[in-house]
Structure formats: structure tokens, C-alpha cells
Amino acid sequence: VVDTEAMFKQGFLAEVYNERPVKPVYTRFPPEPNGFLHIGHSKAIAINFGFARYHGGECYLRFDDTNPEAEEEVYFESIKEMVEWLGFKPYKITYSSDNFDKLYELAEKLIGLGKAYVCHCGDEEIKLQRGGEKGTSPRFRCEHADQSVEVNLKKFRDMRDGVYKPREAFLRMKMDITSGNTMMWDLAAYRVLDKPHHRTGDKWKIYPTYDFTHCLCDSFEGITHSLCTTEFFLSRTSYEWLNQQLVEFQPMQREYGRLSISGSVLSKRKLKELVEKKFVRGWDDPRLHTLIGVRRRGVPPGAILEFVNELGVTTSTSIIQLSRFEQTIRRYLERTVPRLMLVLDPIPVVIEDADDFEGTELEVPFSPKDEAMGKHKIKFSKTVYIDRSDFREVDSKDYFRLAPGKSVGLLNAPFPITATSFTKDEATGLVTEVRATFDRTNKKPKTFIQWVPAESAGSRKCEVRLYNPLFKSENPASAEGGYLNDINPESEIIFPNAMVESGIEEVKRRAPWPEAAGEDKIGKGGPESVRFQAMRVAYFALDSDSTDDKLVFNRIVSLKEDVGK
Ligand code: ATP
Ligand code: MG
Ligand code: MG
């Protein structure tokens, strides 16, 4: 059982609550719908939804949709789905754009208070006003700051009415340019943008900025604790400043450290390039750390929550090695998924004296550790398939698997087998068949290997995709020749002719594994929730490319760190 609440009991988030120990608590997760969520966002989701849940409150899912240039419908849907997949239910789904009218009125109110002015300066002029190239010359305000309230109101309405083209005018807050905090240097509140909005259509030609919108929307929704990442630390001052000018209810903003994974890229621009240049299978490629990619790979939502919890929450950025993420997933799967036998590169072994066991049903537990997972049946057949790597044409003393004259155990089978002979394809040099006999002497073999019975006994052919890190280096963004030059040629290794035992049918029927995951609660585990440990091979999940006729499996993680091809 995962304690996904540890992070609220002590440390940074406990202190945040103690600063404002109110009930009920209201929080929000405020993504900009301009891309797919990535693993870093799972931290924001776990924190915001978890904090509210822990304190008996509620969390909004608020789409911060104030920039129509970058937003698309598919992102809204995907973000909603990912929040649910992680096991959270938004109190309400809201949109910053729902408040465009209200925000506009408050902008006029701010002008009326003499705290905002319409400015016509360009980027260069603004830079000079803010202390020049090095930021060392004296700061000053432009002449627009001296306009009367009436002039500002008239110009702002002109902005609204389409009199100005983009960049010809913008509304600026009159803050405190003497402050040491750059976020108090008369920030933009509204800009002219000639773009239709996906919700408000072409009603608006001006759109509010993040700095104007976020704090006010937090106040409208009664957000008690507004939790965001540390790059907003300086913005806290402007956040409080604006709310104090305009609204009654004062939310409290606090900042935590971002989560990022080394050896991966998360930036939208880079992901887009990887997808468009077909280095990966799509935005949900199992090697990407988009949440849809991580999900497709088969990582259970519970393992992600456990990961975020283990890392804990502080104000410093966590750059976590991929191997640490995988270690958490591995530990989680170890105790939550059933075991099956799968052979990546099968070669047939004919057990010549096994007639008495042909068709016998062997009863096999899904887990040696957890009886509650139950048992399933494997039908034995005279011809079994083992992995090519478990047979050697020439035996040696330090080798303990199958070779001519040598015995090896077959997991769950009646007896070990001893190889007697083998045949080879002359052209390829590959072994095509091994002949063997049962070793009925009751000597315990040194090694047991996985195997599957013949297809006639219920085994199924499948395609297996082994995933390794997408990049060769820990820091692909600064790799020589760029991250596209750093792609690991072995990031995806395909075994097209693998075989899995018939137990897969029940594992499919009973998915999602683990049964207590978020995907179970929302009642729609996808193919990726069919997870199992292939004994001696790796952890796998069913891929979305699978059909009734063709099974495709993704390696979620290897069985041990740094093991596997
Ligand atoms: P990105 O540019 O990577 O998409 P963002 O900051 O633009 O990130 P938003 O979509 O605006 O992301 O983010 C929604 C929420 O998720 C914000 O509160 C943001 O601070 C938080 N968030 C984004 N990235 C991370 C991260 N790597 N770790 C923790 N929280 C994050
Ligand atoms: Mg953003
Ligand atoms: Mg974003």
C-alpha cells in the first residue's frame, strides 16, 4: 500500500498549511492547454489535488487559457484524462477565459484607481526603462504613465474595440519601479491579439496576461493555498499587489521546486521535433516522459504518485536520474503484478519421453509471494519453447543452463530436462530445434528457466518491444551536435516472434493490475493496465498497437537495474 500522503504530513507542504491553517482548503491545478502534460506535471497534480484531499478540501482543474495563439482542443481533453488517470477528481473544471468579462471590469477599475496606464512603447524602450542592457542605468517611467485616468480609459476601450493593432498599445500596471523586484516594474496586464479564442471566439481583441489573470482567478475561486513552482517566487509580490488593489479575498501563493528527469527532454519544442521527425512513435511513445507516453509504457499511476512522494517536496529543483524513477516503478510492480512466462526469442525443445505429460494441466500461482493473486493453468506439451539465450551448443563447467548432456529446470514443470541433440540451419548458423529427455532422477537443478508450451496448448505469439533510454547521455540538451545527435540507437529493440503462455488471457481479463490504481477507480484501464512480470525477462504491459489477433508488449522496466539489453 502506498502512502501518498507522506508529503503533506511534514516538511514544506506542512509548513505551508501551518501558515494558513484554514478549513476547507481550496487549491487549483492550472495548466496552460498548450501541450501534453509531462512527468513534471504529475508532481504539480499530486501536490495540488493531494493537498486539498489531505486537508479535507477541494481542488479545481483550471485551464489557464489566456493565450489563444498556442491552445488546442486536444490538450484540454488529454489534460483532463491524465488528472483522472492519476486518481484525482477535480472539484470543478474551470477556464480562466470564463472570467474575461470580470477581468476586463477589474482592469477598468485598476485604471480608475490610477494604477494602470495604456503604454505604446516597444521592447527596446521598455528595456531602457528597466535599466538598459545590463539593468544598471537608472529606471524610469515613460510619458504614458502620466496620462490621466480618462485618457487611459479611452485608450483601453479603444484597445478593446480594435483601434490598435498588436504591439501598438498595451495596458501596464503602475507598480513600483523603485523595488528591487523586477516583477514590480510596471508589468503588462493586457495586450492586443488578433486571434480567435477557442471558447470566446472573436469576441475579444485583447487578452489578459498571466500576471494579471492568475492571482485574480485564484481569488474568484477562493483558492486558499496557491501552489506553484519556484520560478514564480518573485511574482509572489506582484500577485499580492494586484489582489490587494482589486479584490476582497486574498489567496496565498507559495512555491515548490520543479521536478525534472535527467537523460530525457520535456520541452514542448524538443518533443515536437522528436515526433515530427519520427524519431519516436508519437507524443505517447513509451520512451518519452509525456504522461501519455509514460502511461502507454505501462507505468502504473500509483507508481508515479509513490515516486513524487518519495522525492518529497522542497523549494529546490529535483533533477532525478531516470534509473531512480525506474527503481520506484520496479519496486511497485514487484508487489502488485502477476507473473507469467514469456520467451523473447523462442527455439523449440522436443521432450521425447514426455508423452505421459502431454496435455496435463499444471496449476501455477500468479505470484509466489501473494496468494491472493490466485492461480492459473498451463497446459503442458511435449514440445516447449525456451529462449535461444538459454541454450548452448557447447557446454562448459561454469554454465548452468541447457546444453547437450546438461540438465536445466523448467519453471513450474514436472521435471528438469536434459538436452540430447540439436539441429541447425546451415545458412544462418542458428539452432532450429533441440531434442531432450526428462531428467526424472529428482536431482534439483542449479537453474530454472522460463518456457512456454506449444501454440496448440494455448501459448500465443506476440511482438515484444524492449525500451531503453531514448538518449545516450545524461544531458541530451547539451550533447554535442544537439539532442537529436544523442539518440540511443538501441532505445527500442523489437522481438517480433516472442511467445507468451496462455495465462495472459486471465491477466487481460482481470486488468487493471494493480487493482487499486487510479485507472481502476475511474473504471477504464486501457491496454497498458494489462501488466505482468515475465519471469527472468522483465516487466511488461500491453501496448495500444495490440489487436485481438496480435499482441504487442512494451517493456516497462527491467527486472534489475542495469540488466537487460
Ligand atoms: P511546461 O513549459 O514544461 O509545459 P509550464 O510551467 O508551462 O511547463 P503549465 O502547463 O503552465 O506548465 O503548468 C501547470 C502547472 O504545473 C503549473 O503550476 C506549473 O508550475 C506546474 N509544473 C510545470 N512543470 C512542472 C515541473 N517540471 N515540476 C513541477 N511542477 C510543474
Ligand atoms: Mg506555462
Ligand atoms: Mg505548459
UniProtKB/TrEMBL annotation:
Keywords: Aminoacyl-tRNA synthetase, ATP-binding, Ligase, Nucleotide-binding, Protein biosynthesis. It catalyses: tRNA(Gln) + L-glutamine + ATP = L-glutaminyl-tRNA(Gln) + AMP + diphosphate. Pfam families: tRNA-synt_1c, tRNA-synt_1c_C, tRNA-synt_1c_C2. The keyword Nucleotide-binding applies. It comes from the Eukaryota. Its EC number is 6.1.1.18. Residues 25-333 form the Glutamyl/glutaminyl-tRNA synthetase class Ib catalytic domain. This is glutamine--tRNA ligase. One of its GO terms (cellular component) is cytosol. Gene3D superfamilies: HUPs, Ribosomal Protein L25, Chain P. Residues 448-508 form the tRNA synthetases class I (E and Q) anti-codon binding domain.
